[in-house]
Design brief:
Layout: H1 2-33, H2 41-61, E1 65-70, E2 75-80, H3 86-97, E3 106-110, E4 114-117, E5 151-154, E6 167-170, E7 183-189, H4 191-198, E8 214-219
Amino acid sequence: MMMMKVKRRRMKRTRLVLIMALAFALCALLAGCGGGGSDGPAADEQAEEEAVNEEEMGTMTDNPVIEITMENGGTIDIELDPAAAPISVANFLKLVDEEFYDGLTFHRIIDGFMIQGGDPDGTGTGGSDEEIAGEFEQNGWNNPISHKRGVISMARSNDPNSASSQFFITNTDSEFLDGGYAAFGRVLSGMDVVDEISAVDTDAGDRPLEPVVMKTIRRK
């Protein structure tokens, strides 16, 4: 009777050992083939490739940034938005690359509204050799940029397709312009310089008493 009990105990222990061994083997198999995809050289290469792809996509979608350097040394950095106004941005960058704006002035300044520049004649009536289509709702273009403080937009005459080289930067929220003017970017830094320009003394025609000169406009 005693021998039978001993044999049964040994059989139970043997089964327990076999079950534990099978369990450990199954865990090892799952660890080697399962979803822990971050281990091993192949996974590292995949992660590195994904990071490179993300970086390239970021570079592809980066908007151009320009820097206005004033004669007194102040700078205004502006991010342009070609998705909102591709014609206006292309025209502006073309003039920037031609150094068209160097030495021109902000000829019209209204504190509590905007500063306007880019006229080679300095009178408010001049422009470059080209006029461009107005990218705004009243002219059949869906432009999503609202004329909030710090937005850059194209100046024009009554003709919706008369914008050329003149632009303005709003120094306060001016949403009443939405739908009627082609906004094409936003100030990233230098609103203190915009405010400083906005505060200069002007005559009855909003013309500054002393010239407010843009030394250069360049891409960053």
